[in-house]
Structures are given as C-alpha cells and as structure tokens.
Amino acid sequence: MRSGGVRGIVANGRLAGSWPGQGRRWLTRSALGLVLTLALLFGAALGGFGAPAQAGYNPAGFDFWVDSSMGPIKSRIFRAADGNTRRVVYALDGLRARNDLSGWEIDTDISRVLPQWNINVVMPIGGQSSFYTDWIAPSNTNGQAAPYAWETFLTSNLRWALRDRLGFNPRGNAVFGLSMGGSAALALAAYHADQFRYAASYSGYLNISAPGMKEGLRLAMLDAGGYNIDAMWGPPWDPRWLRNDPFMFAPLLRANGTRLWIATGNGINGPRDVINAPIDVYHLGNAMGLETIALANTRAFEARMNSLGPSNAVFVYTPVGVHSWSYWQEQVFQMLPDLSANLG
Prior knowledge:
By secondary structure, the protein is α/β, with parallel strands linked by helices. It has a single domain, classed as 3-Layer(aba) Sandwich (Rossmann fold), CATH 3.40.50.1820. Helix content is 40%, strand content 14%. The chain is built from 11 helices and 10 strands. The protein has helices at residues 22-41, 103-107, 110-113, 150-166, 180-191, 213-223, 230-233, 239-243, 246-256, 278-307, 325-341; strands at 10-11, 14-15, 62-66, 73-78, 88-92, 120-124, 173-178, 196-202, 259-264, 313-317. Helix 5 links the parallel strand 7 (173-178) and strand 8. Helix 1 (22-41) packs antiparallel against helix 10 (278-307). It is globular.
C-alpha cells in the first residue's frame, strides 16, 4: 500500500490544496448528501434497473477459486481471444453483488465483447455491501463470521494467484466498477498504482464522506444484506472514511498519473427504460434519483480534479441515463478503445 494516504491529503482538519469557493462547495456537498439520504429512505438500492436481452451466464468463463481470510473466494475468468496474459481488467460489481455470478456477467455482454479485444476479464464474485475494502470488524447485524478483506484479496491473494496459476501480468492492470464498485475502483488505483494504471467509475459515488452520505449508505447497506456500516470504516470521524473517499484522495490519482474514465448519466430515463409493471415504476424512480446524485457526485469530483491541475482523466456525461445495467454496458463499450490502448 502506498504511504501518505489521508495524511498527505488532509492537514490540521483542512483539505490540502484547497481552492476558491471551498465554503460554498462544502454547502453544496452537504445538500447532496441529504438528498442521498432521502433517496435511500424511500428504498432506493445501489443496484441496477433493467438488463440487456442477450446477457446471462457465459459458458466461456471458468471459476477461479482463491483462499483468503474471508474463506475461499470465487472469481470468473474470461480469457483474451488471442491467449495473451498481459492485458487484464478487473470488473467490480454493485452493492447487491451475488455469490454465484457477477452482475456484469448476468446483466451485460462485456464477458463476450472484451475478450474479443484481446483483454482478459476477471470478475470477483461476492462482496455484497463491501465497497471492496478491508473492514475493521465483522458486521454484528447479520452474523458475519469474518470481516471483509476485499482490498487485501484483490491486491494480494487474487493478484498473485492469477500470476502464479494463469501467468497473468500482475502490474499495469485496469479496474472498473459501477456504483459501489466505481468508488472502489478508484481507491484501488490510488493506493495500488503498480497494479492498476487504469481505473473507471460508472455512476459512482465519488464524494462519500460529505454530510448525509454516510447516513444514506448506512440505510442502503442494512437493506442490502443487513450490514453494519460501522464495521466497515468505523464511526464517521474515523480517518478511514477520508482514505476511501475519491473526492479526498484525488491528489493521489493525479500524482500517480492514473488513466481515469469517469462516466455517469443525468437521471433522465430514455426509450430503453420500458415500464412493464407497477414495480418497474418504483425501480425506475429509484434509478433516476440515484443517477441524479451520482451525476452531482461526479461533477464535484471533476471539479476537485480540475482544481489540482491537468490530469489523465476523461469525464463522460450521457444525454440520458439512469442507474441501470444497460447504460453501464454502453459506457464500458464507449470506453473500450481507450482501455485497449492503455493496456499491455
């Protein structure tokens, strides 16, 4: 893990490298956090609405089990069409990650498309409500036996197992994720720059320590598996919150020269968001609200990056788009030429 972390970003309670209008933006961040809390109170979950028709289990993939402090963890591996082992991307799931398959395999076609671009795809399975981070304790609200240790798993256990057993390149990889996985992808790249030179976030929450955000996430994690957020990064004043907030560790991403692809919709639904039943109306409403907040978070993160000077980042704002797998798949495909050019 890189040294410095939050200490190099926050000094004497103030954000290092502050910028004009910080007070006004702090008020804006507070308001956005309260909006997120309200959205989650109405049952919005950090997952996806709808799915492409051609998606589903891909028999071309295989299960890859690796031991960890959490027990054996499965990943799904999809090999590059040309058989290379240099070009590797990790795809991180959302808050409601399942224990059998990744949402990326179930609800998108990336496991079929990216290998044709000669990219090896690694899909870690599980990690519901984990933020793919190392927790300080097991959750005491759902009987979790061992604390999550996903950062350690992804950057040590899985990384070296892929090298030793499959010959995969352990350096210069890419990582992307949606929603929960979006902020996690940026954190992994910030603190493990030798492993991840490329990171992408789709509809990510990139300002998670702002006032109100923690309360909203608490409700979401209780809803998605009954997880206690205090077991993740401790109480709200714990510095681990700052360490895992993309808004706060943005200087590390710039210093690392990490290639970033940050995409989000605008919360407006389009023709693909077909309503078939009353429950779909409910889910679409949540997807619209969550994407609106993701848009605001992304705008704030972009402003933060811009305040630091030139960076190796691309920001994409779609003309329509809600918190939905169909849009995340589209964003991956839009990013794909850039990703391919920066791997290997």
